[in-house]
């Protein structure tokens, strides 16, 4: 028979929702299970019983994963009148003590049995279900009776004790569909961000959200929108170009047809208390005498449980608890750099966080121990000690207490609280805050090291990808674009790249990029009107204030002119553009030198929007990127210079233009193999020798590339010179052969077809040709007959004593003479080759075509013969004697 309070029958209430999860038998699963139950019940709107459910779940999951050593299955069931939670393990033979039996629950301080004791004390009903392979311990929590619609309530307070709000608090309600597009935008969103609903509906939230981009760490906006519930801070780019820091609560829901969407509630960041879920302390969940028997962890007393598992969440929770603990107006926490020389602002409350985040201040803020972050310090009135706490300058805070965070004697950070009234704090408050700092220091350092490790892994992946992208191009403009695109928005909001042509040149603004494309023109106009940064070769990032100062001055002048107070020219096309540009560059701007081969070849400039700062790890990552980018940019410069020289020299090897030959059509097509080559081992030429006589040549030097091109230049210029000196074809080629052999080791074999052409008055043309080892010229007659027009003779560059002879050919009207290099005849597709016969077959189809059409048809036939690009140079020279026109 079941004892009072213990129920084994199946619950009869209607189940309206359920959520289930399994947790591995490891210690951290207990905290994960607590978070699962908390998030589930808060999502169902059962905040009144969340704490009790979390306490009971924690104890039962501990029994399963720690004591029983099995997986814990947690099932949450929502009913009309409460919640039932079942915790199952895979150890069914463990006994469950029941009230009234001889077995005692034991002391609340003992581990065993405490979970069931809590169930008996807290739950409305509870019980145990056995199965052959597992056991379930369940408990039921009924909702407290309360007036309909009331979730929670507080005491009546006098008006003067209510929190002060800066104007009416506006809560933007934005709904995001499955694809990330905005489909609802309320009036408060219009007021906060300046966009009308029709301007944003249908657009992606990522077009407006300024999400914190840090390589390798943090949840991305797309991931956050897919979570069932998410709370946190980010920015929204307003219509005027400013970034509005907001605190957001996201809730993912689905409609009756099952379509999911995310409802986002947003307030200004300093009004986060409006949306932020209240944090629970252990004292909130302990009940009666049970809390007296439990040993509380000082860390959990201060920070709450469960503690955030991310560094930013832990730091934010710390400053909020510190502020509340000392009834302060603001609080801040700074983390020390590795060398302990600077402190970086990582979390604030009650201060303009968007302006302060990642700002850096020196560890020694003043002289002596009183102004040092390494010791506790109490300032009764900051107006008497200006600059003692640089972070609070201009914030209106008067009294402040700061304490160090130390781990094993090493400074890891500084925690402070401040109030607007003077004389608020004494040594007693400093001791309380130091006690809290000592409790939190180790957890902060552990979380910080974990974040650094994730950041290093992300940075390494980022740099590897950047190196691959930069190594994949030798084009200067593409390299500049890659440099900017890799930094924006991952490292900075905007980027500008300056280049320096040589040591005597001024830096030139070569590329500008902003994450918002509409801001690029205004940013480029601003940077072009100010002096570029100095090209200092010293490594590391240095702050450059000129852009923000110039932008603010331009905004001031534009505002005055719009009010009729001046006529000074301004940047941009109006006050909106100018103010947007000022907001875009109003934050921290840094310059990193681009140094390659011991010379500054440019500067990489990175910037943040108004009042934003770079974190130190991002600057170190940007410095690594700048070194790789500098080498890639210099390589692209060297490649461009050498390519320009190579192309200039190659162009000098080709005839500048073909002369007009009376009564003869001439067409040349040339293709050099290899990327960037204009001239290779094949060449051609057509030039006047004397009145009425023309020389022509087409040749092929053994090999390709620069060495072959050198012999090409020798051959072409020697042919012209010798022919104009009056030598005949055989004498010209014999002397060229001797010149090639004189080159020694640099010489190359050369096949050459050389001829002289005399147009005749009767419309024909007489040719004298010498074919030295070259593919034979083909003659096409009007009837389609194709025949060789010369006989083969030895090639050049092999033997010293050559005896060459020339052959005479007469081209009648309608005849075509086709001369090609072996890149045409040796075109291959697998084992097939076009060959002399294949070329003759193609030429036979060209009757009646002009010289240009013949050359084009031959080229098309060669290209279609094989799918792969040509691996050899090709030259095609077609000459045709036209048919006489009928009167």
Automatic annotation (TrEMBL):
<feature type="region of interest" description="Disordered">
    <location>
        <begin position="276"/>
        <end position="295"/>
    </location>
</feature>
<dbReference type="InterPro" id="IPR036890">
    <property type="entry name" value="HATPase_C_sf"/>
</dbReference>
<dbReference type="InterPro" id="IPR013767">
    <property type="entry name" value="PAS_fold"/>
</dbReference>
<dbReference type="InterPro" id="IPR035965">
    <property type="entry name" value="PAS-like_dom_sf"/>
</dbReference>
<dbReference type="Pfam" id="PF00989">
    <property type="entry name" value="PAS"/>
</dbReference>
<protein>
    <submittedName>
        <fullName>SpoIIE family protein phosphatase</fullName>
    </submittedName>
</protein>
<dbReference type="Pfam" id="PF01590">
    <property type="entry name" value="GAF"/>
</dbReference>
<dbReference type="Pfam" id="PF13492">
    <property type="entry name" value="GAF_3"/>
</dbReference>
<keyword id="KW-0378">Hydrolase</keyword>
<dbReference type="Pfam" id="PF07228">
    <property type="entry name" value="SpoIIE"/>
</dbReference>
<dbReference type="InterPro" id="IPR036457">
    <property type="entry name" value="PPM-type-like_dom_sf"/>
</dbReference>
<dbReference type="InterPro" id="IPR003594">
    <property type="entry name" value="HATPase_dom"/>
</dbReference>
<feature type="compositionally biased region" description="Polar residues">
    <location>
        <begin position="276"/>
        <end position="288"/>
    </location>
</feature>
<dbReference type="InterPro" id="IPR029016">
    <property type="entry name" value="GAF-like_dom_sf"/>
</dbReference>
<feature type="domain" description="PAS">
    <location>
        <begin position="173"/>
        <end position="205"/>
    </location>
</feature>
<dbReference type="Pfam" id="PF13581">
    <property type="entry name" value="HATPase_c_2"/>
</dbReference>
<dbReference type="InterPro" id="IPR001932">
    <property type="entry name" value="PPM-type_phosphatase-like_dom"/>
</dbReference>
<dbReference type="InterPro" id="IPR052016">
    <property type="entry name" value="Bact_Sigma-Reg"/>
</dbReference>
<dbReference type="InterPro" id="IPR003018">
    <property type="entry name" value="GAF"/>
</dbReference>
<dbReference type="InterPro" id="IPR000014">
    <property type="entry name" value="PAS"/>
</dbReference>
């Amino acid at each position: 028979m079941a004892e009072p309070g213990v129920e084994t029958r199946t619950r009869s209430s209607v189940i309206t929702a359920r959520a289930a999860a399994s947790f591995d038998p490891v210690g951290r699963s207990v905290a994960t299970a607590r978070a699962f139950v908390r998030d589930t019940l808060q999502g169902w709107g059962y905040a009144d019983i969340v704490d009790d459910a979390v306490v009971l779940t924690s104890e039962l999951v501990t029994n399963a994963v720690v004591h029983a050593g099995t997986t814990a299955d947690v099932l949450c069931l929502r009913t009309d009148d409460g919640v039932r939670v079942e915790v199952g393990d895979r150890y069914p033979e463990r006994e469950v003590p029941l009230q009234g039996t001889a077995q005692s629950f034991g002391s609340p301080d003992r581990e065993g049995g405490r979970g069931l004791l809590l169930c008996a004390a807290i739950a409305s009903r509870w019980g145990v279900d056995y199965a052959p392979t597992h056991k379930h311990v369940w408990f039921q929590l009924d909702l407290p009776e309360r007036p309909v619609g009331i979730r929670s309530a507080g005491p009546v307070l006098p008006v003067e004790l209510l929190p002060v709000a800066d104007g009416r608090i506006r809560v933007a309600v934005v709904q995001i569909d499955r694809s990330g597009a905005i489909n609802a935008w309320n009036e408060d969103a219009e007021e906060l961000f300046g966009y009308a609903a029709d301007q944003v509906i249908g657009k992606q939230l990522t077009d407006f959200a300024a999400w914190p981009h840090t390589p390798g760490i943090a949840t991305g906006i797309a991931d956050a929108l897919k979570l069932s519930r998410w709370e946190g801070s980010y920015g929204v780019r307003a219509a005027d170009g400013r970034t509005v820091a907001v605190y957001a609560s996201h809730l993912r829901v689905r409609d009756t047809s099952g379509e999911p969407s995310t409802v986002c509630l947003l307030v200004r960041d300093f009004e986060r208390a409006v949306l932020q879920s209240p944090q629970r302390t252990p004292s909130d969940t302990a009940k009666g005498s049970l809390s007296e028997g439990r040993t509380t962890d000082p860390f959990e007393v201060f920070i709450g449980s469960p503690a955030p598992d991310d560094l930013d969440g832990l730091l934010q929770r710390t400053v909020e608890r510190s502020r509340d603990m000392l009834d302060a107006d603001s609080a801040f926490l700074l983390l020390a750099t590795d060398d302990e020389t600077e402190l970086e602002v990582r979390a604030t409350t009650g201060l303009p966080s968007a302006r302060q985040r990642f700002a850096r201040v020196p560890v020694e803020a003043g002289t002596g121990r009183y102004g040092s972050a390494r010791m506790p310090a109490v300032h009764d009135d900051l107006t008497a000690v200006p600059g003692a706490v640089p972070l609070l300058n201009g914030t209106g805070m008067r009294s402040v207490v700061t304490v160090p965070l130390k781990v094993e004697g090493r400074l890891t950070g500084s925690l402070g609280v401040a109030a607007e009234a003077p004389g608020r704090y004494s040594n007693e408050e400093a001791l309380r805050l130091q006690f809290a700092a000592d409790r939190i220091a180790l957890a902060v350092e552990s979380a910080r090291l974990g974040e650094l490790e994730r950041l290093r892994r992300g940075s390494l992946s980022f740099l590897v990808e950047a190196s691959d992208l930069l190594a994949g191009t030798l084009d200067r403009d593409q390299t500049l674009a890659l440099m900017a695109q890799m930094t924006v928005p991952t490292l900075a909001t905007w980027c500008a790249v300056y280049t320096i042509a040589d040591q005597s040149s001024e830096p030139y603004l070569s590329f500008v990029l902003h994450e918002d494309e509409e801001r690029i023109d205004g940013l480029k106009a601003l940077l072009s009107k100010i002096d570029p940064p100095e090209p200092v070769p010293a490594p590391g990032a240095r702050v450059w204030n000129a852009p923000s100062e110039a932008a603010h001055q331009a905004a001031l002048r534009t505002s005055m002119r719009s009010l009729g107070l001046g006529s000074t020219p301004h940047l941009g096309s109006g006050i909106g553009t100018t103010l947007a540009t000022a907001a875009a560059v109003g934050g921290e701007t840094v310059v990193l030198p681009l140094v390659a081969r011991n010379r500054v070849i440019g500067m990489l400039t990175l910037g943040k929007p108004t009042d934003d700062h770079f974190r130190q790890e991002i600057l170190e990552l940007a410095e690594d990127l700048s070194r790789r980018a500098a080498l890639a940019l210099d390589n692209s410069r060297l490649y461009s210079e050498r390519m320009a020289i190579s192309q200039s020299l190659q162009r000098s090897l080709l005839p500048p233009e073909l002369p007009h030959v009376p009564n003869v059509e001439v067409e040349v097509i040339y293709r050099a193999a290899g990327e960037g080559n204009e001239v290779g081992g094949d060449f051609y030429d057509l030039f006047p020798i004397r009145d009425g006589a023309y020389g022509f040549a087409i040749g092929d030097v053994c090999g390709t590339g620069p060495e072959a091109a050198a012999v090409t230049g020798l051959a072409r210029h020697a042919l012209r010179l010798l022919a104009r000196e009056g030598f005949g074809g055989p004498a010209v080629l014999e002397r060229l052969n001797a010149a090639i052999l004189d080159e020694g080791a640099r010489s190359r074999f050369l096949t050459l077809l050389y001829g002289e052409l005399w147009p005749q008055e009767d419309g024909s043309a007489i040719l004298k040709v010498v074919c030295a080892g070259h593919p034979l010229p083909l003659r096409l007659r009007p009837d389609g007959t194709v025949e060789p027009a010369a006989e083969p003779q030895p090639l050049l560059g092999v033997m010293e004593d050559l005896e060459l002879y020339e052959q005479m050919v007469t081209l009648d009207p309608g005849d075509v003479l086709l001369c090609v290099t072996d890149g045409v005849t040796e075109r291959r597709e697998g084992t097939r080759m076009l060959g002399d016969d294949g070329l003759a077959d193609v030429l036979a189809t060209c009757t009646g075509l002009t010289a240009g059409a013949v050359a084009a048809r031959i080229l098309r036939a060669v290209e279609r013969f094989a799918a792969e690009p040509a691996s050899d140079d090709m030259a095609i020279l077609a000459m045709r004697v036209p048919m006489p026109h009928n009167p």
